[in-house]
Structure formats: structure tokens, C-alpha cells
Design a protein that fits this description.
The chain is an alpha/beta fold. About 35% of the residues are buried. The two termini are about 20 Å apart. Helix 3 crosses helix 4 and helix 9 packs across helix 13. It folds into two domains: about 240 residues, Rossmann fold (3-Layer(aba) Sandwich); about 50 residues, Histone, subunit A, CATH 1.10.20.
Length: about 325
């Protein structure tokens, strides 16, 4: 099993497709935004042409109104991995959502699912009494977890209280983990793409320009008329455009298409996102980093990786 990980715009998807062509593989997305139907331009979702006939999984699984957790992703992905290997093909997991990748490689601790009623109650309490009131409750219930979170991260404070009240267990207590891929009998090879930082940022800027040309504003206007999950609403590119669209009304014309201010904010947010991804994967164990020099085409990188990691010289 092969993993291709790294920051956004580093070339993971085209490389995964090229490797799938060479190694009789199928691609499994590890991107938390690609699961949503109708969110195509802002997520840089690969088109059918870009997939080049290679089967892709983990794309367009549900409408953007639905929540999709890492637990759901792991359950879905493990089913798909069994099916791919059952066909005698190589699974190639490609994506930049580090928590999805870790959930597959290392397994997950079993936490209770979200309790919408309790969460809304805690959110109302935070509005009425302030976040410090919830933090004081968490300090009393689980001082270890409270000190690890700190008093300012309200989302994590609410989640910790939710776990405590639903399960009766302190969130800081260790949990039994589900098995990682190695324990399930797989032999994962995890490759991280190391790109020149300045060149990557240039690629991000060009990608955002392309998104606007392809109709990102129209896509966001359409989505703004729908009920969206928190995950979908917080996607980079979307969250920057939603308030701009709302300010003018969702039926306004696409006069923001050329707005350099909004475009620059999206470019900056995407660069910051890429930096966070880089930081995450650099901390992970077992990743074999591969330099991808500027100017080296995708086909050549795929040939090198196929040869170095799988002994495949054909193609």
C-alpha cells in the first residue's frame, strides 16, 4: 500500500494517478473536503479527465450539508482498501488531511460521537456566561485535559465537556485504540513530497487564480443558498468568499470575480494552510521524504518512485 502525502498544491494527485497507471493501482483520497458533492472548484477536485481512467475513491460521497468525521472516513477507507487489494490492485492513498492519514496508519481512539443537543446547550452557556465558565467546569471535571487545552480554545473545551458528560469518562484518560494498518496485515509505504517552499507558494497563487477563472465565485454563490455543515463552510477559499457574497446578497452578480482583495486573502489563507500541513507531516513518524525538484515532470517522478520503492522499471 502506498501513501502520497504533503501540502496542498504539491502535486499529490497527478503523481498518484501516474503511479496508479504504472503500478496497477487505484487512488483513495485522504482529503476532508473532496468528500463533498458540488464543492469542486474551491477544493481543486480532480476532474474525470485528470483522473485519466484511474478509479478514485473518497470523492463526492455526500452533500455538503452533512457532517463527515474521521471515524466515518476510516471505516469507509478500510472497506475500500479491502476491496482494492481483493482485486489484486495497489491502493494509493493521496491527500493532505493529516488526521485522516494518521487514522489509517495508526488507528483511532474510540471517542463518543457528537451530541448535537448537548453541544448547542454548551454553546448557549458560553454565550451567556462566557467561555471561562465552561473552562472552570472542565477544570473541575478533568484538570489534566483542561490545562492541556487552555482557557481560550472554546471548541475543544466544549468537545471535552461533551465527552465527559456523554461517556462519564475523563477525556484525558487513555483509550483503547483501533488497530493501525500494520496490525491489520498491510505494509504501508508512506512518501512525503518535499517541494521548494517559494515554488510551492507560487503554485498556490496560480491555483487560486485558476479557480477564479473557472468560476469559484459562481460555485460559492450556489453553495451560499444551501445549508452547509461546519466542515464544508470552513473550507479554505469558501469561508473567505461567503461573507463577501452574503454582504451583497446571494443573487448578486459575479462582480467579485476580479476582486484582488478577496483573491489575495484566499492565497494567503491557502499558503498558511500549506504551512500547517507541512508542520503536521514533518512531525509524523515513518514518512520517507522525496525531493521533487522544480522542472522534473510528473512522469519522471513516478518512474523514480516506482523504481526506488517498488522495483518497477516499466512505463
Amino acid at each position: 500500500m502506498l501513501f502520497i502525502v504533503g501540502p496542498t498544491a504539491s502535486g499529490k494527485t497527478p503523481l498518484a494517478v501516474e503511479l496508479a497507471k504504472r503500478l496497477n493501482g487505484e487512488v483513495v483520497s485522504a482529503d476532508s473536503m473532496l468528500v463533498y458533492r458540488g464543492m469542486d472548484i474551491g477544493t481543486a477536485k480532480p476532474s474525470f479527465r485528470e483522473r485519466r481512467g484511474v478509479p478514485h475513491h473518497g470523492i463526492d460521497l455526500l452533500p455538503p450539508s452533512r457532517k463527515f468525521s474521521v471515524f466515518q472516513y476510516r471505516r469507509y477507507a478500510l472497506k475500500v482498501l479491502r476491496e482494492i487489494t481483493g482485486r489484486g490492485h495497489l491502493p494509493i492513498v493521496a491527500g493532505g488531511t493529516g488526521f485522516y492519514v494518521r487514522a489509517l496508519l495508526e488507528g483511532l481512539s474510540s471517542q463518543p460521537g457528537a451530541n448535537a443537543h448537548l453541544r448547542r446547550k454548551l454553546e448557549r452557556e458560553a454565550l451567556l456566561k462566557g467561555p471561562e465558565a465552561l473552562y472552570a467546569k472542565l477544570l473541575k471535571a478533568d484538570p489534566v485535559r483542561a490545562k492541556a487545552i487552555g482557557p481560550h480554545n472554546l471548541r475543544r473545551i466544549i468537545r471535552a465537556l461533551e465527552i465527559y458528560r456523554v461517556s462519564g469518562r475523563k477525556p484525558s484518560e487513555p483509550l483503547k485504540k483501533s488497530p493501525g494498518l500494520g496490525e491489520l496485515g498491510y505494509r504501508p509505504v508512506v512518501i512525503g513530497l518535499n517541494r521548494d517552499r517559494a515554488a510551492l507558494y507560487d503554485a498556490i497563487n496560480r491555483r487560486v487564480d485558476t479557480m477564479f477563472r473557472k468560476g469559484l465565485v459562481r460555485e460559492v454563490r450556489r453553495l451560499a443558498k444551501q445549508r452547509l455543515s461546519d466542515t464544508a463552510r470552513q473550507g479554505v477559499g469558501y469561508k473567505e468568499l461567503f461573507p463577501v457574497i452574503a454582504a451583497a446578497g446571494v443573487n448578486a452578480g459575479c462582480r467579485y470575480r476580479a476582486s484582488s482583495e478577496v483573491k489575495d486573502r484566499i492565497k494567503q489563507a491557502t499558503r498558511h494552510f500549506a504551512k500547517r500541513q507541512w508542520t503536521w507531516f514533518r512531525r509524523e513518524k515513518g514518512i520517507r521524504w522525496v525531493d521533487w525538484p522544480e522542472g522534473v515532470p510528473v512522469a519522471e517522478m513516478a518512474r523514480r518512485i516506482a523504481k526506488d520503492f517498488f522495483g518497477a522499471s516499466h512505463g
